[in-house]
Specification:
- α3 packs antiparallel against α4.
- This protein has a domain of 33 residues.
- Helix content is 68%, strand content 0%.
- The protein contains four helices and no strands.
C-alpha cells in the first residue's frame, strides 16, 4: 500500500463510518427518541447514512483503487450496513411509517 495522503484520508473516513451507526443505541435509550415521529425520522436518517456509507466505501474501493486489507473489511461491513438500511426503508414503506410520505 502506498502511503498516499488521499488514500489514508479516504480509508480513515470509511473506517469511521463503521462506528457511526452504533450511536443510535444510546440515543434510543431516551424517551423522546421512542415517540412516533421522532423515531421514524431518526431511523430514516441512520438508514440513509448506512446506505450512503456502503455506496461511498464501494466506490472508494473500486474507483479509487484503494484495495488493502482495512478497506476490504470496510467494504464488507459497510455493505452489510447498506443492506440493513435498504431493508429498514423497505419495512418502513411497507408499514407506512416513512416520515414525510404522503399517505
Amino acid at each position: 500500500m502506498k502511503n498516499n495522503p488521499k488514500q489514508i484520508i479516504l480509508t480513515a473516513i470509511c473506517a469511521l463510518m463503521l462506528f457511526i451507526p452504533w450511536t443510535i443505541l444510546p440515543l434510543r435509550s431516551f424517551p423522546w427518541a421512542l415517540e412516533s415521529p421522532t423515531a421514524a425520522i431518526m431511523i430514516s436518517c441512520y438508514a440513509a447514512f448506512m446506505v450512503f456509507s456502503g455506496v461511498f466505501t464501494a466506490v472508494v474501493y473500486a474507483k479509487g483503487k484503494i484495495q488493502h486489507t482495512l478497506m476490504k473489511i470496510c467494504v464488507v461491513i459497510n455493505g452489510i450496513y447498506a443492506l440493513g438500511g435498504v431493508i429498514a426503508f423497505a419495512l418502513m414503506a411497507y408499514q407506512g411509517t416513512l416520515p414525510f410520505a404522503n399517505s
